[in-house]
Design brief:
homodimer; about 350 residues; alpha/beta; Spore Coat Polysaccharide Biosynthesis Protein SpsA, Chain A; 11 helices; golgi apparatus (chains A, B)
Chain lengths: ~350, ~350
Amino acid sequence: MSHPIIKDDEVDIVVAAIQPDLTSFMEEWRPIFCRFHLIIVKDPDLQKELIIPEGFNMDLYTKSDMDRVSTSILFTGYSCRYFGYLVSKKKYIVAVDDDCIPAKDGKGFLFDVVAQHISNLRLPATPFFFNTLYDPFQKGADFVRGYPFSLRNGVKCAISCGLWLNLADYDAPTQALKPGERNARYVDAVLTVPLKAMMPLSGINVAFNREVIGPALFPGLHLAGEGKQRWETVEDIWCGMCAKLVCDHLGLGVKSGVPYVWRNDRGDAIETLKKEWLGMKLMEEVVPFFQSVRLPRTAVVAEDCVLEIAAMVKEKLGPVDPLFGQAADAMVEWVRLWKAVESASPTPGA
Amino acid sequence: MSHPIIKDDEVDIVVAAIQPDLTSFMEEWRPIFCRFHLIIVKDPDLQKELIIPEGFNMDLYTKSDMDRVSTSILFTGYSCRYFGYLVSKKKYIVAVDDDCIPAKDGKGFLFDVVAQHISNLRLPATPFFFNTLYDPFQKGADFVRGYPFSLRNGVKCAISCGLWLNLADYDAPTQALKPGERNARYVDAVLTVPLKAMMPLSGINVAFNREVIGPALFPGLHLAGEGKQRWETVEDIWCGMCAKLVCDHLGLGVKSGVPYVWRNDRGDAIETLKKEWLGMKLMEEVVPFFQSVRLPRTAVVAEDCVLEIAAMVKEKLGPVDPLFGQAADAMVEWVRLWKAVESASPTPGA
């Protein structure tokens, strides 16, 4: 890839600290993260002191910061990263889970996750027509024959979903069924997920344009028995479904593909299976709902869209499971919070 | 990839002979094609005798065969391959343009285009929800977290669109603008193009399940000044838009990605540009039309769907350009022909 010119002050790296010792994580990422501002958010359930190596430009947020802005939003576990999204003042957010390290190419060079994500976000997306040669704006690629010329300008890309080498982002049943499976397939491509296609957005390795889609990335749906394992969580899946819907409605693009991160093993998938795996059941309700949602033309910014979706969730999914009603409430509260934080300190240049 | 067990008698390789000397083409493909039955269709405009090397199990079709079944369908140029689709009795068709040779991996081994296409067609497609790790049925892959379990069975895959190394499938303006550009990016992935996503299907390297989608692959839209160059043609783009619509309506899948073929240079893109490039203008009319089409529930097989689309083309696009009216007529005639050929000699085991 060709490196985009990234202004350091346009990017916040957000890290959710689920484990106390971030030393090896931060050292692995140092060559890539060192030039950017970091927002580290400590899981409010984590009792131990964080261990963070020196030499980073960073701000740390903990439970007391969260309690100051909201007592109703759940920021526990992986959801603490959303607090980082809320307090950031930057245009772009790049978020990586703390069990991931940079992936390396065959020669041992690091793939620059930040550069690739920002490139994905900076270059237009093409949600209205599928390009068979993947991202037409990438060096060496273009629009293939038959691609309508009127659609070749593309639209603004709002979200860039990265992927995972080694341990892929499977759910607990899949992981438990294939304990030895590791993802070794590096697919050197990024593509726009087409308009109206539903997708499972993963929060493990993701970047987005905070100015246009920030309010649509929130901690909404929490499973009752949810632990500290990605394969148990649905918060990112739920907010991803909402965010994709919002992007489709607002004419924004969502890309998926490179960059990859190297994801290390953590936890025991079989242990997870012993719990009732509610996420699986909920998703079956969620898909027909999202297929049916149409947002009104009056919803012209992400905040409006999230409130519209929340109202529909309350009405249509609320009776199915109380978790959906709680998710709807959390979405309304999130938009309130987002607006409050924005108005308290307006984004420079926004 | 893991090789599927391909029954030789399930596959027809269809080659449109646009140039008379097929010697080097056939010799390059011999290791892959030798076990299959070939249907070679000679461009009816081609005057010279075909030169075809010995040792293939093949049938040759020429202008006189075409004239016997239809005098109204245009089988000239690349469109002659459709005659091969019509007369085949096999379940699967694999079609490759005669300016393509097998692509090779880093060690000089040939990529087996037929095995990959048949694997794509045999394994289910997943049009209703996007899987970020590409084809979940491929070895070493699976459905990622958040993918609804009720959609993991997938649906039957009807079309497999392959890609091109070296000379990519660009239109004349793009090719003329970037005369030196060659596609060197081998992306080792195949994915299902999501439901309702429009796409530019290329006829250069394509395979399909003839039993379920055959009638939807037809020579319909012909540009007036259309030559013998792919970058000038729109017949495959047009029928691809129809075929994708039919697949979406019938709950069938369309995949895009591997296998690649190595595509050699042929023709002069700048020469093409001297003609009025009508295809560009037509596509702008075509996209809103296909966005608006809804097929009735009574259309339950591909033939029905094509007739429904033809009627809508006639009504809505006919007034825009007479070429669309002619395309609609050709579609109706194609379905008549398809049914006549089918009833004359029913497909064994169908």
